[in-house]
Amino acid sequence: MAISTADTAPVTTAPAPATQAPPPRWRSREALTAWLFILPSLIGFLIFTAGPVVAAGVISLLNWNLFSAPTWAGLHNFARLGPDPTFWSALGSTAYFTLVSVPLTILVSLLLALLLNQGVKRIAVFRSLLLLPYATITVAVAFVWIWLYIPHDGLVNAVLGWFGINGPAWLISDNWAMPALILMSVWKSFGFGMVVFLAGLQAIPQQLYEAGRVDGTSPWNSFRHITLPMLSPALFFVIVTSVIGSFQVFDQALIMTNGGPGTRTTTLVMYIYRTGFENYDQGYAAAQSLVLFAFIVLITAGQFLFQRRLVHYDN
Amino acid sequence: MSRTMSTNLTRRSVLQLGGLAGIAFAAGCSSGPPAGTATWAMWSSSAAEKKVWEDFGKYVEQQLGVKSVATLTPSSGYPTKLDLQLVSGTASLVTALNGTLIPTYAARGAHRSLDDLIAADPDFKLDDFYETSRKISGFNGKTYAIGFDVAPTVMYYNKDLLKKQGIPLPSRTEPMSWATFRDLAKQLTKPGEQYGFTCAPAIDDLVSWIYCAGGNVMSADASRSALGDPEAMEALQFVIDLFVKDKVTPPIKNLVTESSLSNFMQGNVAFMQNGPWQVVNARKAKFDWDIIPFPAGANGSTPRVSGSSFAIPSGVREGAQLDLAWKLLKTLTSTGALDIYAKAGRNNPARLSAGSAFQPPPDNLGIVQDILAGKIAGGHAFDVTTNWNQVKQLLGQDLPRTFLGQVSVPDAISGLTPRLDVLMRQHLDTTRQAAARKG
């Protein structure tokens, strides 16, 4: 039986003085304590997130090369986006990366989580091992994968060679450079989703499966009608964070291909960085950042709209 | 009672801790070397390099009698860090600049012209610096930096490999022709085992061949791209053929990490195009090697000459701060300091009077100064624009694909030219604006 604070609170019979109205909710002791706890995080958010977003909005309306005094540009920087082929190519590459890497990462994460959830002994060891790629810094991982992808002596092509497949020159191939980056990114990031899914799976009440078994439900139907709906909040969380992360892909592309060959793997964030800090065109870089921000907001808002129909919470 | 006390104490402690943290944060934010400190910024990517700059620091302290504080940053991150320091007003009194970026910084007003300081200082002799170094350190007819190193691109060769093949060693002073070089490279290639030549698949190395053919990246007035001109096309096709048609180069495994030095150090590559700044690394080779002048094209042996310099940011205030900055810059580029640099084998010093400190090995190292002095072969200052990063970026997108045989040279150049022309026009605008701002 749950005990609420109302059950234990002393009964007060004397009416409160008419002149002393209770303080507004936001001034109550609990509210102030809550604000105090939130404050450090809030200050950090305002300084390091909200502030730069507002600053980017202002800078996007300026011509500014970092060193000279900025001049007013109005919406010119946004107008420049239309005829800029590199911007659209970078946007296309980023979308390609997101559309392929996110479903793949989620699939691998979910499969591994389901596997680990089958009463595996020493689950903590496996979980830690599988989480290692996620915990390793991307720069180190990227350099290892550069070696794996070496056309003639690399491990990836050596393994393909065992099956009679002549592997491509991954990172310098027009067609294979992006898939190579995606493969590496999936390997690097599946651990995060796996841990979230595993936690979600372990929170599903076993009675639901037992009830299903009594009704003669097949394993597939059990997965489809019990696991997936019960896991949907975790799935939704992983999809949202993965999509946002994929739109911001930068370091692995910079290290492994530097955006090439041509502009095949030039992502939007890489192009923004180059525009702002190598070409000293801060206004244009800020305009690109805002467009990327708008894309991410729109996509995330769309996902939240869909979740009303597809995500099942306990309540 | 005790509970209240303990609560009060805890609150007080929290407040005290908060206050202390605030003071520490404020102190941290305002920390920096005290006024009168000789601060300078430089790139440094190895322990050996760091040691040289530490010795520079000691030399500065000895000469100026003030504390020297050097901000050392790995070379790949140096420009970004410098930009942020310049913008935030926290840059050092003197900052090192790669020659290719001097017009970029000068045109944007990030660094000040040194002409007034040079004119007011009879002790400072600009004539003691190689002419090419002075050219690299200037923009729009003004001096913006003082060089500390300068060198032409040369050809390294593996003596053991040539001797093993029974091939006579090339002349130490007379540049060989491109045709001879190509024949030698083919002769020395055994596919999958041994290669005739290696260079970086990038514009930085291609320009040497372009200059030797009499071409350039941009027209003389920098108003348009000149890569499509016959001379430049001939050079580009020659180099690409070495990679794609003759296959005398080690296969390219990755465009980002491809390194001519690491190819050469394997010991199975006969010739490497590189600058004398790699002598210090090549000394670790387990085979006998030397350097010779760059092969001569239609325009002779006139490879890229590049260098680096020290400059003073525009943010340095007139008066005592500027006086110290100028003294520091003079000390960092003095014969004494450049002797330290050259003796460590880092590169050829930009001062003629410090030249004797850049000593063999390899045996033929002396040609570096002979080339700069115009006694043998020749050189061409690296011509760059005020938006060189953008030009390099654009060329870095499509040119490497020609090395892979994915795109032909004419197709790559015709695709690049309109975009390069736009960048050239932007460069001219920036140059005009810079001239107007000063004038």
For the sheet with most strands of chain A, the description reads: 2 strands, antiparallel
Helix count of chain B equals: 17
- Please give the largest β-sheet of chain B: 6 strands, mixed
Count of helices of chain A? 13
Q: Spans of chain B of 5+ residues with little confidence (pLDDT < 50)?
A: 1-9
Secondary structure: number of strands of chain B: 12
* Average of the residue pLDDT scores of chain B: 92
CATH fold description of the largest domain in chain B: D-Maltodextrin-Binding Protein, domain 2
Instruction: Estimate what percentage of residues of chain B fall within beta strands.
Output: 5-15%
**Low-pLDDT segments of chain A:** 1-14
Order of helices and strands of chain B: HEHEHEHHHEEEEHHEHHHEHEEHHHEHH
Describe the protein.
The complex is a heterodimer of chains A (315) and B (439). Chain A is mainly α and 315 residues long. Chain A has 2 domains: 20-59, no CATH class; 77-310, MetI-like (MetI-like fold, Orthogonal Bundle), CATH 1.10.3720.10. Chain A is built from 13 helices and 2 strands. Chain A has helices at residues 5-8, 29-59, 76-79, 85-116, 123-135, 138-148, 155-162, 177-202, 206-214, 219-247, 251-256, 268-278, 282-310; strands at residues 62-63, 71-72. In chain A, strands 1-2 form a two-stranded antiparallel sheet. With 439 residues, chain B is of the alpha/beta class. In chain B, a hairpin with a 2-residue loop joins β4 and β5. In chain B, α2 packs antiparallel against α14 (335-343). At the A-B interface, α12 of A face α3 and α16 of B. Chain A: One of its GO terms (biological process) is transmembrane transport. Chain A: Keywords: Cell membrane, Membrane, Transmembrane, Transmembrane helix, Transport.
What's a quick, concise take on this entry?
With 315 residues, chain A is mostly helical. Chain A is 68% helix and 1% strand. Chain B has helices at 2-30, 47-64, 78-88, 102-107, 115-119, 131-136, 159-164, 178-187, 203-212, 230-244, 260-265, 279-282, 320-332, 335-343, 367-372, 388-403, 409-438, and strands at 38-43, 68-73, 94-98, 138-139, 142-143, 146-152, 154-158, 195-198, 269-274, 289-292, 304-311, 380-381.
